[in-house]
Write the structure tokens for this entry.
Amino acid sequence: MRIQIIGFGNIGKGLAKVLIRKEKLLKKKHDLKIKVVSITDVTGTAKDDNGINLSKALEIMENGRGILAYPKATKMNGIEAIKTIHADVVVEVTNTKIEDGEPGMSHMLQAIKQGKHVVTSNKGPLALKFQELNNSAKKNSVQFKFEASVGGAMPIINFAHETLSGDKINAIEGILNGTTNYILTRMSKEEKSFEMVLREAQEMGIAESDPSYDIDGIDTACKLVILANGILGIKKTYKDVKTQGIRKITPEAVKLAKEDGYVIKLIGEVKNNNLEVSPRLVPKNHPLNVEGVLNVALLKTDLAGDITIVGKGAGSIETNSAILSDIISIWRTGI
């Protein structure tokens, strides 16, 4: 299988590390040999029809240089790489931009137009134009895979489509952002203010220097849209989500909740064609009460009842568990 990596930040580099680590297992277990024939970042594109030396590419990036420093790399951008380099699968892992979904949206549409399967962790394009991407993939007879876009390592989407293929899933709710869950967990356990815990989370690298995407519920809303479209078949976009973040939660509110046997969590829920993200009271012994940076999703089904999935919602290696799963799935069904 020939793949192209578009985006070589934390997730892209994590994929390179995973492919090195799992090379023998992929061959032995799945009879799958993966060649990364190109890697593109903001500086340019490295390409090799015989397969890029992933260790060399990682070494270059760790030395603070862009992929343009790879031998014989060019200033070719992502669209040009997708158009001109022969590959079976495009792995699109550029940064999420909720404003317009670019450049990921254009990368995905171009790959699909070229007849290439797409695997992505990029939430922005899916939150804005899921139906356009999905319909384009069907029209061009390619697979469009996005397990890594929700919940990191948690197998929510594939689990729903495969293991629960005979069930009707009526609703989904969960904690889909590790940063906010970490903040609320610390506030509950240590009775500290939101501002103090946020500052400490930023110092630890758990929260971004501009944390608004997480704490204002935007990230959770994007993921909820993907679950609504990808699992429940509800045609919604990011603009349809009623969203409230956690900025206004006080230590007093957290303390009162604890005294009554509850914790406060940022919950995303899709139910009855409605999508909402908001802080909610969750009983202490409820399956949705997970701590730290963990994510959790509760799928409400007609046959299996309530199914709860818990896992790490972020991390370059953890997220690539989902990306690799999607790549293997494409291989199994034929490229």
